[in-house]
Amino acid sequence: MKILLVEDSKRLQKAIVTGLKKSGYAVDxxxxxxxxLWFAExxxxxxxxxxxxxxxxxxxxxxxRLREKGKDVFVLMxxxxxxxxxxxxxxxxxxDDYLVKPFAFEELLARIQALIRRKxxxxxxxxxxxxxxxxxxxxxxxxxCHKIDLLPREYALLExxxxxxxxxxxxxxxxxxxxxxxxxxLSNVVDSAICSLRKKIDNPDETSIIITRRGMGYIIE
Length: 221
Prior knowledge:
Blueprint: E1 2-6, H1 10-22, E2 26-30, H2 33-42, E3 47-51, H3 59-68, E4 74-79, H4 84-93, E5 97-100, H5 105-119, E6 126-129, E7 132-135, E8 140-143, E9 146-148, H6 152-163, H7 171-178, H8 189-201, E10 211-213, E11 217-219
Parallel strand pairs: 1-2, 1-3, 3-4, 4-5
Antiparallel strand pairs: 6-7, 7-8, 8-9, 10-11
């Protein structure tokens, strides 16, 4: 899953980005409001985290412009002000959640996970596929009740496919939602990641949980 963070405190920005990447998220980050708006308008993010007080363009203005242009991305507002009036201002403009500084990273992570579940219509904290159980809260995968050791990006790939269960996911969508860096059109990074994940989750001599649709992408049926 890919997150956009717009936060002008370099210390806080670095801490959040480091924590999110360790948790398996792809992250774009900036401390400038105008650049943050450009990122949000130009890319498809699962969640946008917006500080309210930003140089050049404040977070509420960014949110307002996104909603005016029909961008329905889930937005989590960050602010040092915790008055009811400040919260209502953001919510009325279309914010989906609100977090007051200072906060524990674990709470931010939990709120991001909740917004992602809402985006993909996941009512429960877990997804079951055959003998797999994907715990969306702990970000742990179990196979026949035994934990599978997945790398953060492998988990992110499986989670993205599972949340889109029943729909074909293209390589481009995977590249946009799973990777921070720009992926070359000639790269086989997605195919390699799928191959590595299959080795860890599939049963020998059985059809893979992740089905390849030639010329289209991948699907978990």
